[in-house]
Design a protein that fits this description.
Blueprint lengths: L9 E3 L8 E2 L3 E3 L6 H5 L3 E9 L1 E3 L8 E4 L7 H9 L3 E5 L8 E2 L2 E2 H5 L10 E14 L2 E8 L5 H12 L3 E11 L2 E2 L6 H12 L1
Parallel strand pairs: 2-12
Antiparallel strand pairs: 1-3, 4-11, 4-12, 5-6, 7-10, 8-9, 10-11, 12-13
Length: 198
């Protein structure tokens, strides 16, 4: 890895929610021209969904706004519910998101305590697999297109079950052919840069 000193352009191919972890593609110099292409790549996530509660952000960082008993369902029944979300589906973005409505970021509107109508966007979920099933928690692996909100997926699964749900944790494990296990941590990245700059 070469030093970043003197490099004027740095970009990334796809953001992560503040509470999420996982792979983030960083481009520097001339490679920043590839950002639009990289953003089109399929993404894979592991997310832990908690059933029975809803939050205003659709994730663990928000305030609880609703609570309901979790229905008595088994893994197979939950899997059938999940399959309803595989394919091209309409998805309404969370209020706490960077999506713009009328020129304003939704999260700025949400911070004022307001909720506005958001037009659904068509996204593609290629696969949705149950990794662990221990109610009220369910861990899922999702392969999807860009623009998919896993928070919104958790929310919509909860709405379908009529008990509510939010995303308790999220890790992005793959972007196209780039895998998390081949990535550098921030600490490793800094160490390599410091090593090159000595």
């Amino acid at each position: 890895m070469r030093s970043l000193i003197g490099i004027k352009k740095v970009g990334h191919a796809g953001t992560l929610d503040p509470f999420a972890t996982g792979i983030l593609l960083i481009c520097t110099g001339k490679a920043t021209k590839k950002v639009p292409q990289l953003m089109e790549l399929t993404k894979e996530y592991w997310g832990q969904v908690k059933l029975g509660l809803q939050t205003d952000t659709d994730d663990i960082t928000g305030k609880i706004i609703n609570s309901n008993p979790v229905p008595k369902i088994d893994r197979a029944e939950f899997g059938e519910i999940c399959q309803q979300f595989v394919g091209e589906i309409p998805q309404i973005p969370p209020m706490f998101s960077a999506k713009k409505i009328g020129g304003q970021r939704l999260y700025k509107i949400a911070r004022k305590g307001k909720v506005v109508e958001r037009p659904p966007k068509i996204v593609t979920i290629s696969s949705l697999e149950i990794i662990n099933f221990q109610l009220p928690f369910v861990t899922i692996k999702v392969t999807c297109s860009k623009g998919t909100y896993i928070r919104a997926l958790a929310r919509d699964i909860g709405l379908t079950l009529r008990c509510g749900a939010y995303l308790h944790s999220l890790t992005r494990t793959r972007i196209g052919g780039y895998n998390l296990e081949d990535s550098l941590t921030i600490e490793q990245f800094k160490e390599k840069l410091n090593g090159n700059n000595k």
